[in-house]
Specification:
Blueprint lengths: L2 H16 L2 E6 L5 H11 L5 E6 L6 H11 L8 H18 L3 E6 L7 H9 L12 E6 L2 H6 L5 H6 L2 E5 L4 H10 L1
Parallel strand pairs: 1-4, 1-5, 2-3, 3-4
């Protein structure tokens, strides 16, 4: 539990408490997936619904289908129906089941610009007056660069919390090896 890893855990907890949109980046092997696994293990199932996706080749239709399957809903066929169905499911989880949906999209640096634009729509509930979910994008540093593109400015502006996880320093690595 390095200082950086603890800080990341605190930020992830904050994102969930605030039901906000966050971005986690880091080099390969820095510990992003470990942090997400740790987060999942800490979540109370009576308070949260954890949804995880790491398929980078998804088209919006496939994204909604997979998310609906994870919440136990039979997906409809048309993409527009799937989108409405998923938003309705998220609202139901939040308002009726009194749980916070936590949507984690891993390997997000590989998502197409059109899929990133689609994710932006998940942050728009009741004309931006409600956020029933915590949405966390996780990826390698090129995701930060991608989100700086003018064409993705609208999604980048919606990100409330950002964190870049760096790998272990030499001293941290040495301490880890000697104590484990």
């Amino acid at each position: 539990m390095t200082k950086k890893f603890k800080e990341l855990q605190a930020r992830l907890t904050f994102m969930i408490q605030q039901r906000s949109f966050g971005l986690i980046t880091g080099e390969v092997g820095a510990g992003k997936s470990t942090a997400i696994r740790s987060l999942k293990d800490r979540l109370e199932t009576n308070q949260h619904v954890f949804l995880y996706l790491s398929d980078s080749a998804l088209k919006p239709r496939d994204f909604y289908r997979e998310m609906l399957l994870q919440v136990g809903i039979e997906p409809k066929f048309l993409a527009s129906d799937l989108k409405r169905q998923f938003k309705t499911a998220l609202l139901d989880i939040y308002e009726n089941k009194k749980k916070t949906p936590v949507v984690v999209i891993d390997e997000a640096h590989l998502l197409s610009p059109s899929m990133l634009q689609e994710i932006r729509f998940l942050t728009n509930f009741q004309i931006d007056s409600l956020s029933p979910l915590a949405l966390i994008l996780v990826g390698q540093p090129e995701l930060r660069d991608k989100l700086r593109l003018r064409s993705l400015e609208a999604i980048s502006q919606r990100i409330n919390t950002r964190f870049h996880l760096e790998g272990l320093t030499y001293d941290e690595m040495s301490e880890y090896i000697t104590t484990n």
